[in-house]
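User: Some background: our group keeps a shared notebook of sequences we're curious about, and every so often someone picks one and asks for a predicted structure to add to the entry. Today it's my turn. The entry only has the sequence so far, pasted here. Could you supply the structure so I can complete it?
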Amino acid sequence: MKLNRKWRLLLLTGGASGEHDVSVKSRDFILNFIDTNKYEIIRVLIKKDKTWVLEPLDQECHLVYQSHKCALLCNEQIIDFDVLFPLVLGDGEDGSLQGLFESLNAPYVGTRVLGSAICFDKISSKHIMLSHDLAKKTGIRCVPFVEYSSDMSFACACKMLECGKLFIKPSNSGSTLGANRATNQAEFEQAIIEAKKYDDAVL
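Assistant: Of course. Here's the predicted structure to add to the notebook entry:
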């Protein structure tokens, strides 16, 4: 479809996770490369309390479904857009935001609900890649792993993985949040405590 006007691009950033600031930095970086001759930018920030605001006015807003399409409602004013670009990290990568977009018929950039949910859950994604030799067939390396259980020790995990040191992280969180290395039982126990701050499932 060719428009006789600029495309209206809604950039959605922020979120309630520990990666809120990284999300905002990602948006600021991307803004440097958007052709403003072709795109009109609408900036929406999800604050750490999960409130959505229109920037730079800091006016509360939210998505609505109206006239068979999705739009942004701000101060009783409807703001139309052509495509939504989510840059929300952490809690915005687990498929929940994508589900919201699809329920409101919002055109958006990125993977859909299932792909987002599976890839964000590291344990589930590894199980899927290892099933039917998918990792081998696609040439994607899948690092050996075990899921933590309450009776597991550092020595036990090392024996299962045939290694002398471990990298421990929550199954559902950002790439580095709650991630630590352990070379002994004390470091192992502390790493588990840190990982469990973000998710009950730990690998």
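Suggested note for the entry: Strands lie at 7-14, 39-46, 52-55, 59-66, 69-74, 77-80, 83-86, 166-168, 180-182. The helical segments are 20-31, 96-103, 113-120, 122-130, 134-138, 154-161, 185-195.
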